[in-house]
Specification:
It is built from 23 helices and 13 strands. With 481 residues, it is an alpha/beta fold. It folds into 2 domains: 6-299, Rossmann fold (3-Layer(aba) Sandwich), CATH 3.40.50.10420; 420-477, no CATH class. A 6-stranded parallel beta sheet has the order 1-10-7-4-2-3, sandwiched between helices. A 4-stranded mixed beta sheet has the order 8-5-6-9. Strands 11-12-13 form a 3-stranded antiparallel beta sheet, with no helix packed on it. A hairpin with a 2-residue loop joins strand 11 (438-439) and strand 12 (442-443). Helix 16 packs across helix 18 (380-393). The termini are far apart.
Length: 481
């Protein structure tokens, strides 16, 4: 399995906040993705969009509730189409299955279409240890492979890199003249990867969806590399989490409306490929063998927990990352594993264990933007609160925090907020203390006790002169009986 560095979330996020170049890249990319998402959604009426979301949620809810039935149907139809289905309980078993397929076929070169599950498994390193050359062919994945890094976003793996950084990387790794022209860099990548497609013995792909009624693997891309990875090599191995199955092609149509709009702001992506078994007699291209590896790797734990099962509805569009104020500050690498952002803060503890990822459920402001952006209406804040509650109720947590400053502050905050006179006194005191330090109603960088860590990176508004109670009494309640 890929290295799990979730225990380092606090220092990693602190370092990321200080990286101004990273924050600029995140701000630019995040606002771009979310802006195009909103524009694409605005092309249809709110009633239509919400209808699609509700329909997609019902499909996912039904499928996950009957997952064993639809996985059996999927296996039956993949086999009937000439493919083979392998079920992997964990990362070790999944890697062993793919390694055995490669060894038995004498594979020397593998091309890969974008696959988050392969990142989860750490598959590239496993195959390379067998002496197999592995090449990522999605441009973002290819960039981070050259940089020897991991993806920082579900949709845009190299989102954290600037154009200049990519140009420098190409010059160093590919031996080409430095050029930060985007079209030129894309041309260089095409030239390098084109021969790899022709040389590959095996193609590895992820799956956006698995259609049970037809046994089809569905890939959505914008670059065409997915089609080359699945049709040019003599062996195609598809990797997918078990939650990717949906019942029918009719259901697929719903998700094809939602996923591109939510991920990249497109009505539909450039390429939508459906793979149903290996090449048949008379087909011009296609693999001689098709293998589908369906991975559990902790998903059963999420499935068995009624409070967290909803996280398996995720279609990996990345919309929640693009609107999350925490992700926009720290990026994806700080989360320490494959799945970052709000949904990653739920999925990661479920897959690698809460003990290893205890800080992630707290990496949220609970503002609810992720829930509003999710095309499947996943209630992410509710699940984050559930994980926090589990931590707070655990004996280990209570022993660790009994004398902790955070716990004392929390109890003090609760006392103030539950007492009107203490709240009034605290507001007056804070205004009196903060007033001399404020400018335009806000406190900027200062050494204010207890708050200096906050004001180093952002302004702190001072309490207003009038409370909501005052406004209600003097203005809003007028004319009411």
């Amino acid at each position: 399995m890929a290295e799990v560095a979730t225990r380092e979330f606090v220092p990693a996020s602190q370092a990321a906040v200080q990286d101004t170049q990273l924050r600029q890249a995140l701000r630019r990319a995040g606002s771009g993705f979310d802006g195009t998402r909103r524009e694409a959604i605005a092309e249809v009426t709110p009633e239509v969009w919400e209808g699609w979301r509700e329909q997609a949620r019902r499909i996912k809810e039904h499928t996950i509730a009957h997952l064993d039935y639809y996985l059996a149907m999927l296996e039956k139809n993949v086999t009937a189409a000439g493919g083979r289905v392998h079920f992997a309980a964990d990362a070790q078993q999944a890697n062993a299955i793919v390694s055995e397929i490669a060894r038995n076929a004498g594979v020397r070169t593998v091309t890969k279409s974008k696959s988050m599950v392969s990142e989860e498994l750490g598959l590239n390193h496993v195959l390379e240890a067998l002496g197999i050359d592995v090449f990522e062919t999605d441009l973002g994945e290819y960039i981070i492979q050259l940089a020897e890094e991991t993806p920082s976003h579900l949709v845009a793996p190299a989102l954290h890199k600037t154009r200049g950084q990519v140009a420098q990387l190409f010059a160093e790794k590919l031996g080409v003249p430095y050029s930060d022209d985007i079209e030129e860099m894309a041309r260089v990548a095409r030239i390098v990867l084109r021969q790899k497609f022709l040389d590959a013995d095996m193609g590895v792909s992820g799956a956006n969806f698995l259609v049970a009624e037809t046994g089809s693997l569905v890939i959505i891309t914008n670059e065409g590399n997915g089609r080359l990875c699945t049709s040019a090599p003599r062996i195609h191995v598809g990797l997918a989490g078990m939650e990717k199955v949906i019942p029918s092609l009719q259901d697929l149509a719903v998700f094809l409306r939602l996923l591109p709009r939510s991920a990249t702001g497109q009505r539909i992506t450039s390429y939508m490929s459906m793979v149903t078994g290996p090449r048949r007699p008379g087909d011009e291209d296609g693999p001689e063998e098709f293998h589908l590896v369906i991975v559990d790797n902790g998903r059963s734990r999420l499935l068995q927990d009624p409070a967290l099962r909803e996280s398996l509805y995720c279609i990996r569009c990345g919309a929640c990352l693009n609107v999350c104020p925490v992700y926009q500050r720290i990026g994806g690498h700080a989360y320490g594993w494959v799945y970052p952002g709000p949904i990653g803060s739920i999925v990661t503890p479920g897959l690698v264990g809460v003990a290893q990822a205890k800080d992630l459920p707290n990496a949220s402001t609970l503002c609810g933007a992720c829930r509003d952006a999710c095309p499947v209406q996943i209630n992410i804040p509710r699940m984050l609160l559930h994980l926090r509650h589990q931590q707070a109720e655990s004996s280990d947590y209570n022993q660790r925090t009994a004398s902790d400053t955070d716990a004392l502050l929390a109890r003090g905050f609760a006392s103030v907020m539950s007492s009107p006179w203490l709240l009034k006194l605290g507001r007056a005191a804070s205004r009196a203390m903060a007033g001399p330090l404020a400018k335009d109603g806000k406190i900027g960088q200062s050494r204010l006790p207890l708050l200096s860590r906050w004001t180093r990176a952002r302004d702190l508004p001072i309490p207003p002169a009038r409370t909501f109670r005052d406004v209600w009494r003097d203005e809003l309640s007028r004319g009411r009986g």
